[in-house]
Amino acid sequence: MRSEDIAKLAGVSRSTVSRVLNNYPDIPQRTREKVLRIIEQYHYEPNTSARALAGKGTDTIGLFIVSMAERHTGNRIYQNHYFAPIVDTVIDTANAAGFYVLVHTVYTQDDYLKVKQAFQQRRIDGGIIVGTQKDSERIAEICRLDKPFVMIDFDLEALAEHSLNRDTLSVINSDDYEGACEAMRYLIGLGHRRIAHIRGRMNTLSGRQRFQAYETMMNEYGLPYEDSDILDGNFLKNAAYEEVARLLNQARDQIPSALFAANDDMALAAIQSIRDNGLRVPDDISVIGFDDIPISSQFIPSLSTVRLPIYEMSKEAVNQIVNMCTQGTTSFNSSTFPTELIIRESCKRL
Fold this sequence. Notes:
Number of strands: 12
Largest sheet: 6 strands, parallel
Helix content: 40-55%
Strand order of the largest sheet: 2-1-3-4-5-11
Strand content: 15-25%
CATH class of the largest domain: Alpha Beta
Distance between the termini: 72 Å
């Protein structure tokens, strides 16, 4: 069915149908309701390709998720405790605003081409990218398209580094540095002096900030740490499990009394590794994570962690991209969301 058919059935002009579909305010309410009733009755779907060719919006935003470190499985994004709630929240918030969401995954450097193609083929009006590892050249290439774009977990210094036009960009971050400092202060306040860190990928802003906070707090409190106390978990459970097993394979008096993991997946893997090596949490080793994924509160022992405002950040990303697409907003915006220390059972006072 075409828009001309809808117009005939409603007894209005084709342009009136178009104005109803595009939510113009100058349509009488009775006319609007009549057109919408017929659209619903006949399950009419507007031709987004034709709208794009006519220079109109598609009412579609792209969500691009970068995940290059994880092994290939068909559903690795949707089982990821960090990305899955972002996908859910973005889709729900966008749908409520009358927008569709096109989800693309970026598993390799070549996959960045998907982002450019989505814009060049006019399949989307704007995009959100999350999980941006330090692929500054690729990101800069996309930003030079001068299309509405929101980036989550992106280093603002990279914008200046590449002299990018900021007018069509928005950056949303969480205050990971302060959150990680708070986690470290908590462990130190419990009396821990030998603290190890399972760090995430250092080519991400969040990985770098959480590691920098660990180093800063250890130095600020005059606490020594060895190279062997810094474990490369890369935000992955298997890597964290093996790294902790290696850490525990040394003299008992050399084992740290506490572990700070840069995300909850690694923290939970660390607890399992500690158990498998005959030790207990928190009796022998205290563990604290970061993110506050749902399973953290259900695990035994329940995991102390730093809550990341994933839902709030995701909603804000959608609100900003929708405003940029519908109102033609052309001013750079940067938002930073606070984190929150969540104290549970996985840490004990010495």
